[in-house]
Specification:
single chain; alpha/beta; Rossmann fold; 2 domains; eight-stranded mixed beta sheet; elongated; ATPase_ArsA/GET3; D-isomer_DH_CS; P-loop_NTPase
Length: 348
């Protein structure tokens, strides 16, 4: 039996054995940061991982403090134990030119089409074509064997995979089901022929048991609701939901009894004011009222977060939590998030 059939010992063990990890989440949840941390965690102990960005925002470059990345797989991160993470800022137009060259030897023709604006025109009027090209690039990297960089179809099937895992920083949750349902998206473009065949190969990878869609959320109602809706939508498409990754989690500052008392009525204002008065603090009553409001607000937030967390647990997916890190996200913070994922069982 596989680890999944046995049931994971740790929540993150549920992603072990997957080769394509698709990371989505509502805007503002830190999706790109978590995708990068996941890529690093999967590269532990000598793994080779590709992190693919498909939105054209250059979010990974910004995260790593790098200039905008070209359309090429570039090793960007070294991981303790000999692992590495390469990054690809995928671009639909460049992917189409590469596709024409790789499968049809049409490099010059593709360049001519690009100069005429035909490539940009085609991907603009046919969003489904754009999506199948972007997902196709990620799935080609999943299938690629070592020694077959340019022509995957000619690869030795016994050769090891070029990458041990591929992580896709995918579009937000509100668009993820449309983005991944490439067969439906290209149905109006081509029912037969090379585009349709390409879409079928893409869906073969996306629907396989080696692909998981992970959802990044916050302990807030809107991103949590989008997570619930997103999981339901991809399940209807026959795709597998992976982990629910709660980002920017904050620990409570008070014990449960104090939190309940504060949420129910707030701290004793008279007692606080008297204490400030004894400490000879100026405007003790005003300061007490301000502090009481802060304490009650914190208690109500913790109550809401616990309810949201309970609702997320009811989804039946592995739930991992990552802390809110003071000072923003830099390389040290990214390494800390990677460590937290590893502690919760994330591995290849």
């Amino acid at each position: 039996m596989s680890d999944r059939e046995h049931g994971p010992q740790h929540p993150g063990d549920a992603c072990a054995g997957a080769r394509l990890h698709i990371v989505t989440g509502k805007g503002g949840t830190g999706k790109t940061t978590i995708a990068a941390a996941l890529a690093q965690a999967l590269a532990a102990d000598g793994g080779r991982v590709l992190l693919v960005e498909v939105e054209g925002r250059q979010g990974v470059a910004t995260l790593l403090g790098s200039p905008p990345l070209p359309y090429e797989e570039r090793e960007m991160l070294s991981v303790p134990g000999g692992g590495s993470v390469s990054v690809l800022a995928a671009d639909a137009e460049a992917a189409l030119l590469e596709y024409l060259e790789m499968f049809y030897g049409m490099r010059r023709a593709g360049q001519a089409l690009n100069r005429l604006g035909a490539v940009d025109f085609a991907t603009t009027i046919a969003p489904g074509l754009r999506d199948v090209l972007l997902t196709g690039k990620a799935t080609e990297a999943v299938r690629r064997r070592r020694g077959a960089r340019r022509r995957p179809s000619a690869a030795d099937p016994s050769a090891p995979f070029h990458y041990d895992a591929v992580v896709m920083d995918a579009p937000p949750t509100g668009r993820i089901s449309q983005f991944l349902n490439v067969n439906s998206e290209v149905a109006g473009l081509a029912r037969v022929g090379p585009i349709r065949n390409h879409a079928d190969k893409v869906m073969e990878v996306i629907r396989s048991d080696r692909t998981l869609v992970h959802f990044v959320t916050l302990l807030e109602e809107m991103p949590a609701q989008e997570t619930r809706d997103g999981i339901a939508e991809i399940s209807e498409l026959g795709l597998a939901a992976g982990m629910v990754l709660v980002n920017m989690a904050r620990p409570p500052l008070l014990d449960d009894a104090s939190l309940e008392a504060a949420a129910s009525g707030g701290p004793d204002l008279d007692a606080l004011a008297a204490g400030f008065g004894e400490a000879r603090v100026e405007n003790p009553r005003e300061l007490a009222a301000s502090l009481a409001g802060e304490v009650r607000g914190h208690a109500l937030r913790v109550r809401l977060e616990r309810r949201v967390r309970s609702d997320l647990e009811d989804l039946g997916r592995p739930l991992l939590e990552l802390p809110l890190l003071a000072g923003g996200v830099d390389r040290a913070a990214l390494d800390e998030l990677t460590r937290r994922l590893a502690e919760q069982g994330v591995r290849r």
